[in-house]
User: Which sequence fits this backbone?
């Protein structure tokens, strides 16, 4: 699958709306079984909105989770017959299946089949993604920095979270 198109708006010197950038995602990173296309991220909340971006927000190591109080928007292409490792991040993630089919696998052994148009709200749980089909699948993800409550932290297994580092390392 080709890199998704990203259209970024901003403001003209007189305050009118304009398109600042219109091109395929600038940063993609392939790992075994998947390709991550970084589209945008914010470094805090509320997000700073200026007439134009002072710098390209994807010009940083491709990382999960987002910066403190930040967000990440990315598209992930899952190769046919692929499976991610089981992982958990301290985030709330909105996963939208755009094409193909995927299976959400949780650490309790449950599997939930998802098709184009389905949305998963992932709330800091251990999970893996499986593409059981012979065709690629594409998902959009919005990751929002989160904070486990002390109540949850006390009952979580001690398993290390994967993807809590830069993917470029």
Assistant:
């Amino acid at each position: 699958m080709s890199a998704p198109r990203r259209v970024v708006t901003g403001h003209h010197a007189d305050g009118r709306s304009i398109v600042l950038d219109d091109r395929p995602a600038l940063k993609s990173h392939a790992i075994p079984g998947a390709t991550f296309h970084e589209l945008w991220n914010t470094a805090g909340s509320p997000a700073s909105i200026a007439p134009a971006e002072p710098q390209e927000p994807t010009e940083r190591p491709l990382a999960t989770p987002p910066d403190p109080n930040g967000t990440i928007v990315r598209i992930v292409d899952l190769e046919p017959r692929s499976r991610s490792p089981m992982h958990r991040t301290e985030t709330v993630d909105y996963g939208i299946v755009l094409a193909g089919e995927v299976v959400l696998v949780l650490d309790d052994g449950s599997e939930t089949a998802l098709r184009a148009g389905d949305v998963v709200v992932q709330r800091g749980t251990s999970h893996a993604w499986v593409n059981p089909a012979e065709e690629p699948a594409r998902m959009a993800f919005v990751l929002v920095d989160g904070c486990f409550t002390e109540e949850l932290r006390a009952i979580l297994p001690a398993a290390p979270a994967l993807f809590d580092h830069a993917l470029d390392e």
